[in-house]
């Protein structure tokens, strides 16, 4: 990459990255400044590469302004943990950190990792260094680099789970930034900058044009929504062995109201690679994006736009050139579901695995429901692992039959037994939204459970309470809860109002389509009621809700993301 750069043509973040001395910026100075709970503006961009976002509590915004106080600044810390697998000790460490330094809750994200919310500036370093002492880091959890690599979550569903997690870890390690900034700033490791010019062999000084995401699935499970990833791998299994992967590129969901040039896009399958080629393919796809992604306009910078600009053929041509070989033709595969299978399953390893529904991914104690305490007590037993799913749920994995009984007893004792829930709730995702997300126009995590209860009543009227329907809500069109791939998608427009999108597909392969704009709760229920009634009366056999709404032309199927409208 040339250093002769015309900065006037590029977005401001590009210069910031370039001049940051490999992600150091003035972060140390910002952290040491006692006069404000915030960090310097430039550092708010750089901190993302270290897994940290500056936020403020939007619930108390007005009152703080009235009192002429600065916003109630605090920070979100996101872990990088490819494949989302944690030991009980690591769970306990996160639990303790959330009590000591954060808002006493744990957030399980849609990318299989933890977030802590509400960490004050003065506690950032202690929190991150304690995480690292338990072999958990936050580097590249956010920022313009490859982020947490997702992978199939459930060991009970596939004996290949361990292999897939290793692949996710290897990809993640291979694509990590090489700067020593993280270790210096958070772990007090010796300064390496300036003594000898550091190099980022893969990323260069400006890193990627935008965030980059990778996920791996084992069919028929599509639990990390492989078509939403910048780069996806679909494992092809023959005689219980992974013989290779179909390669999917250019998925991505974020879009902006009023800007039709931004849109969600499902990934395109461009071929098949062998297990030995995976790291090479991941690296070269990243390089094509590094050198062709839009660095002028961050709203056009994701790989999906690069591919639509280059054309799929143009993209594949450049990728092939960099690889030095062509991908093989894609192999057959079938994806059936994006959801998790709840309850206990005995794995082929003869161990027990409990997939447990965690509403909105929020682990907390509320009233009689003491989920956080229950999980702490379970972790203290020290058996098995804790695996986070891409649907914000949790798998207590690989425990003995005796511990299985203990887990059940502890969940019951703390008012959170693993009980049956409706097919709609099982398949629900809500992004964080208010009060922490600065980009939220409306509630999501705090509201979707109530709305689901109301839709459940309608479904029960038609004996559809067990029907599996994917519903996802976000507080804005950025798509963090992947609402564009839901059968019922709700995207916040303003407090209390949502756009309603229908269609998508149960297996996560198709986008949904706008049905109605700017609806309040009553209007959402009034719109859904007759469609549900029609579905109950006129569905074909086991037809999914999404297939039905397309067949009955409630909405038209989109042939490509570019045609998506809000
Ligand atoms: Fe996200 C920005 C939360 C998964 C697309 N996302 C944000 C921020 C950091 C807001 C900000 O920029 O200040 C949110 C922090 C809220 C908070 O208080 O916690 C946020 N995103 C989340 C999480 C926590 C939602 C959740 O409830 O689980 C998910 C964390 C995942 C992780 O562990 O890494 C999360 N975000 C996603 C996904 C889903 C996925 O990756 O599978 C998407 C859509 C897929 C995609 O990237 O295309 C997503 N987040 C965005 C975007 C839009 C990106 C775009 O291309 O336009 C933004 C805004 C941005 O980047 O400018 C965003
Ligand atoms: Fe925030 Fe929007 Fe993402 Fe929800 S979808 S967490 S409101 S950025």
Query: What's the rounded overall pLDDT mean?
Result: 96
Q: What profile does the largest beta sheet have?
A: 5 strands, antiparallel
In the CATH hierarchy, the architecture of the domain at 425-563 is 2-Layer Sandwich
**Compounds present?**
siroheme, iron/sulfur cluster
**SS element count, helices:** 17
User: What is the straight-line distance between the termini?
Assistant: 38 Å
Number of distinct beta strands: 22
CATH superfamily of the domain at 425-563: Sulfite Reductase Hemoprotein, domain 1
Rg from alpha-carbon coordinates: 23 Å
CATH topology of the domain at 425-563: Sulfite Reductase Hemoprotein, domain 1
Category from helices, strands and their pairing: alpha+beta
Outline the low-pLDDT stretches. Answer: none
Helix content: 25-40%
Shape: globular
Q: What CATH first level of the domain at 425-563 would be assigned? A: Alpha Beta
Strand order of the largest sheet: 1-2-5-4-13
| β-sheet strand percentage | 15-25%
What topology does this entry show?
Elements: H1 12-18, H2 27-32, H3 41-49, E1 52-56, H4 61-66, E2 73-78, E3 85-86, H5 88-100, E4 106-108, E5 114-119, H6 121-133, E6 150-151, H7 161-174, H8 181-187, E7 214-217, E8 231-238, E9 241-249, E10 268-273, H9 278-292, H10 303-310, H11 312-323, E11 343-346, E12 352-356, E13 362-363, E14 365-366, E15 369-370, H12 371-381, E16 385-388, E17 394-399, H13 401-413, H14 423-426, E18 428-430, H15 448-461, E19 471-474, E20 488-494, E21 497-503, E22 512-519, H16 521-538, H17 545-551
Parallel strand pairs: 6-7, 7-8, 18-19, 19-20
Antiparallel strand pairs: 1-2, 2-5, 3-16, 4-5, 4-13, 8-9, 9-10, 11-12, 12-17, 14-15, 16-17, 20-21, 21-22
Helix pairs in contact: 5-12, 7-9, 9-11, 10-11, 12-13, 15-16
This protein binds siroheme (SRM) and iron/sulfur cluster.
Iron/sulfur cluster binds next to loops.
């Amino acid at each position: 990459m040339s250093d002769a750069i015309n900065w006037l043509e590029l977005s401001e973040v590009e210069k910031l990255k370039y001049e940051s001395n490999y992600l150091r910026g003035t972060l140390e100075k910002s952290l040491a400044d006692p006069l404000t709970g915030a960090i310097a503006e430039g550092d708010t961009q750089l901190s993302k590469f270290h897994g940290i976002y500056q936020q403020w509590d939007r619930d108390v915004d007005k009152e703080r302004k009235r009192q002429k106080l600065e916003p109630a600044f605090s920070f979100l810390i996101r872990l990088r943990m490819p494949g989302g697998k944690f030991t009980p000790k690591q769970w306990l460490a996160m639990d303790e950190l959330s009590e000591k330094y954060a808002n006493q809750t744990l957030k399980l994200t849609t990318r299989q990792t933890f977030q802590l919310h509400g960490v004050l500036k003065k506690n950032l370093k202690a929190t991150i260094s304690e995480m690292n002492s338990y072999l958990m880091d936050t580097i590249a959890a956010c920022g313009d680099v490859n982020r947490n690599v997702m992978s199939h979550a459930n060991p009970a569903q596939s004996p290949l789970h361990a292999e897939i997690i290793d692949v996710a870890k290897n990809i993640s390690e291979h694509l990590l930034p090489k700067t020593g900034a993280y270790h210096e700033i958070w772990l007090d490791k010796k300064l390496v900058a300036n003594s000898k010019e550091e190099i980022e062999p893969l990323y260069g000084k400006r890193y990627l044009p935008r965030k980059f995401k990778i996920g791996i699935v084992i069919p028929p499970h599509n639990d990390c929504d492989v078509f939403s990833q910048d780069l996806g791998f679909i494992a092809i299994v023959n005689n219980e062995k992974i013989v290779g992967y179909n390669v999917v590129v250019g998925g991505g969901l974020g879009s902006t109201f009023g800007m039709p040039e931004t849109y969600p896009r499902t990934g395109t399958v461009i071929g098949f690679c062998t297990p030995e080629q995976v790291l090479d393919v991941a690296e070269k796809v990243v390089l094509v994006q590094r050198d062709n992604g839009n660095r002028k306009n961050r709203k056009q910078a994701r790989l999906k736009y690069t591919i639509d600009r280059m054309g799929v053929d143009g993209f594949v041509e450049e990728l092939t050139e960099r690889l030095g070989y062509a991908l093989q033709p894609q192999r057959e595969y079938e994806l059936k579901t994006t959801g998790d299978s709840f309850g206990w399953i005995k794995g082929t390893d003869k161990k027990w695995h409990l997939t447990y529904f965690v509403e909105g991914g929020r682990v907390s104690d509320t009233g009689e429901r003491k989920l956080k305490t229950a999980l702490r007590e379970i972790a203290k037993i020290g058996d098995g692992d804790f695996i986070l799913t891409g649907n914000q749920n949790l798998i207590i994995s690989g425990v003995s039959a005796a511990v299985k009984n203990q887990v059940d007893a502890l969940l019951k004792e703390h008012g959170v037994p693993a009980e049956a829930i409706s097919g709609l709730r099982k398949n629900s995702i809500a992004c964080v939204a208010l009060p922490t997300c600065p980009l939220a126009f409306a509630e999501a995590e705090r509201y979707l459970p109530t709305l689901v209860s109301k839709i459940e009543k309608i479904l029960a009227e038609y004996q559809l309470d067990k029907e599996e329907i994917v519903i996802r809500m976000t507080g804005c069109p950025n798509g963090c809860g992947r609402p564009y791939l839901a059968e019922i998608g709700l995207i916040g427009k303003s407090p209390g109002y949502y756009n309603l999108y229908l269609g998508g597909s149960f297996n996560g392969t198709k986008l949904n389509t706008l049905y109605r704009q700017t609806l309040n709760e009553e209007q959402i229920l009034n719109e859904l009621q007759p469609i549900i009634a029609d579905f109950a009366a006129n569905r074909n056999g086991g037809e999914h809700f999404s297939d039905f709404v397309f067949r009955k032309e409630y909405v038209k199927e989109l042939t490509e993301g570019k045609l998506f409208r809000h």
